[in-house]
Task: inverse folding
């Protein structure tokens, strides 16, 4: 895969029978360091357009998502495990519990697809279930049409 990538993030949050889908496509950077793959991209989470810098670190059986900017967090996803993370927002600090039920990584020469299914708790209370896909592909070859 090339250093210059397109990143598509698609998340479906489910609370009871209701689903909320969020999707974005943004340019990013890909590199490998010490056997770990990194995806780096920015996203705007509010109306002001203030960017949040995201670093996704892909290892065997583990994915870490680090956010810096308007929101700050370091989330760890490992299938079959519950992890915790602080989630700092302009509205305050939240303690998150993350229970990951599925973690898949598919890759070829031009792309890497991450699938993460997890349940989220906020401050000790169940909040929602989430199904997230992160697809990074070489900018020269846009492979962004993968259905969920």
Result:
């Amino acid at each position: 895969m090339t250093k210059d990538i397109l990143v598509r993030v698609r998340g479906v949050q489910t609370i009871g029978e209701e689903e909320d889908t969020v999707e974005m496509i943004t340019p990013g950077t890909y590199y490998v360091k010490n056997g770990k793959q990194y995806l780096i991209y920015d996203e705007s989470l509010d109306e002001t357009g203030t960017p949040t810098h995201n670093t996704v670190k892909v290892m065997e059986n583990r994915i870490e998502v680090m956010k810096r900017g308007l929101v700050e967090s370091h989330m760890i996803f490992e299938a079959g495990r519950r992890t915790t993370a602080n989630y700092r927002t302009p509205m305050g600090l939240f303690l998150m519990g993350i229970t990951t039920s599925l973690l898949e990584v598919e890759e070829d020469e031009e792309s890497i697809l991450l699938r993460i299914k997890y349940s989220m708790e906020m401050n000790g209370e169940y909040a929602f279930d989430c199904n997230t896909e992160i697809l990074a592909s070489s900018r020269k070859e846009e492979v962004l049409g993968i259905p969920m």
